[in-house]
Design goal:
The protein is α+β, with helices and mostly antiparallel strands and 202 residues long. The chain contains seven helices and three strands; from the N terminus they run αααββαβααα. Strands 1-2-3 form a three-stranded mixed sheet. It starts with 30 loop residues before the first helix and ends with a helix.
Length: 202
C-alpha cells in the first residue's frame, strides 16, 4: 500500500508535552527518607493516646498523589498522543496530528465541579497532508479512545482543524454523525485498524 505522505514531519517524543512520569527515571533518595518511609506511623497510632512525645513523619506528599484532580487538556492530550498512526509506525503526538493547544474542555475543569455536569471535550486534529485519506479513521480512533477513557458525563467531539484538509467539511460531518460512527465500529476490518492504533495507548 502506498502511503499518502511518505515523508511526514516527525517530532521528538521527548519534546512532547506530558504529565506522565518518564519510565526509567531514577530519583535520588537519601537513606533517611527511605527509613522514614519504612517507619511511617501506623494509622491506629493516630489516636491522641499514642501521640505522647514521639515524633513521627506524616508524609502528606504521597497522599496528594491520589487526590482527585479534574481532567484537563493535558490529561486528554496524554490519552490520545500515544495512539499509533494507521499509516506510519509513529504516534499521533509525534506526527503533530494532535496538539495540546487544539484541545478544549468546557466548562473549564475545576476540583469543585459537580461530577454529573455535562462536560464537552473538543479535539481538533491536523492531518499530515491536506488530502489524507485516513483522516476519518484517525478521528474515529481519537473519539473511541476518549469515549473509552473518560467518565460518562464527558461528550467528545473530534473535528479536522479548519484549513488543514481539502475535504474537512465532509470528514467533520462523518465524525459528527453518531449513526455513521456506530456503523463504522461494527465493521470488522475498521475495528481491526482501530484496535491496532490503540494498542500503543498507555
Amino acid at each position: 500500500m502506498e502511503k499518502d505522505n511518505a515523508n511526514p514531519t516527525i517530532l521528538n517524543i521527548s519534546q512532547l508535552p506530558t504529565r506522565q512520569r518518564k519510565k526509567g527515571r531514577n530519583v535520588q533518595r537519601t537513606a533517611e527518607s527511605k527509613i522514614l518511609d519504612i517507619m511511617r506511623k501506623p494509622q491506629y497510632l493516630s489516636d491522641s493516646l499514642y501521640t505522647s512525645g514521639t515524633s513521627w513523619s506524616d508524609d502528606t506528599e504521597s497522599d496528594d498523589e491520589f487526590s482527585a484532580e479534574p481532567i484537563d487538556e493535558q490529561e486528554v492530550y496524554d490519552l490520545i498522543s500515544t495512539i499509533s498512526d494507521p499509516e506510519h509506525p509513529l504516534s499521533l503526538g509525534q506526527l503533530a496530528v494532535v496538539n495540546l493547544p487544539d484541545i478544549h474542555i468546557s466548562p473549564s475543569p475545576s476540583v469543585d465541579a459537580d461530577p454529573n455536569t455535562l462536560t464537552q471535550v473538543l479535539v481538533k486534529i491536523t492531518p499530515t497532508i491536506t488530502h489524507c485519506s485516513l483522516a476519518t479513521v484517525i478521528g474515529l480512533g481519537v473519539r473511541v479512545r476518549l469515549e473509552q477513557a473518560l467518565p460518562p458525563n464527558y461528550r467528545v467531539d473530534v473535528v479536522i482543524k479548519e484549513g488543514t484538509h481539502s475535504q474537512d467539511d465532509q470528514v467533520n460531518k462523518q465524525l459528527a454523525d453518531k449513526e455513521r460512527v456506530a456503523a463504522a465500529l461494527e465493521n470488522d476490518t475498521l475495528k481491526g485498524v482501530l484496535d491496532k492504533m490503540l494498542e500503543t495507548c498507555v
